[in-house]
TrEMBL record:
Native source organism of the sequence: Chryseobacterium zhengzhouense
Entry protein name: DinB family protein
Top-level lineage group: Bacteria
Matches recorded under InterPro entries: DinB-like, DinB/YfiT-like
Transmembrane segments: none
Pfam family for this entry, one: DinB_2
Upper taxonomic lineage: Bacteria, Pseudomonadati, Bacteroidota, Flavobacteriia, Flavobacteriales
Domain spans labelled DinB-like: 31-164
């Protein structure tokens, strides 16, 4: 058996891809979005301000983090699928969360935004030419395909759903 030495970036990507429960990642995109909406629809405004520990994001901040990250990933997918060869920058998720003012917004507005961003991702990915999704670009200094970024949206969302179920909901 040959041992493959994975880079830190490959390990980071694989960590999220491992969360996708089936090969049909486009269906899992829809499923993870529906599950996120279901969980957040049952929260009160007060509950949405809960953070499970000091220095951790509130549920509102986490929801906006999902939307922000998905938007960044959407742009990368679009750029690479269209053949853009420009290197795209990374983004600082902590800075984005700190500057989001999510806790000042209503839960319903954050949930509406999440649903619209997810619908946009679904349309982008479901209508993309399969060969265009194979296009590779460079984001944050790493080569990655448009399709893999689409899968990262799914795995990232499921990763945070797991955290919500393990660390937030039991304490509410």
């Amino acid at each position: 058996m040959t041992h493959i030495n994975m880079t830190d970036f490959q390990k980071y990507v694989q960590r999220y891809l491992d969360h996708i429960p089936s090969e049909n990642w486009l269906e899992e995109l829809k499923n993870s979005g529906d599950k996120t909406v279901d969980i957040y629809s049952k929260l009160s405004e007060e509950q949405s301000l809960f953070a499970y520990a000091e220095g951790k994001w509130t549920l509102k901040e986490l929801l906006l983090h999902l939307s922000d990250t998905e938007r960044v990933f959407q742009y990368r997918i679009l750029a690479f699928a269209r053949g853009d060869q420009n290197e795209l920058p990374g983004f600082d998720e902590e800075l984005y969360a700190d500057q989001s003012f999510a806790n000042e917004r209503s839960l319903s507005s954050l949930l509406e935004e999440y649903q619209l961003v997810r619908k946009s991702s679904q349309i982008l990915l479901e209508t993309a030419n399969s060969s265009a999704l194979k296009n590779i670009g460079i984001a944050n200094g790493n080569q990655i395909s448009a399709e893999t970024i689409g899968k990262l949206i799914v795995g990232h969302n499921i990763h945070h759903l797991n955290i919500i179920e393990e660390r937030y909901l039991p304490k509410l």
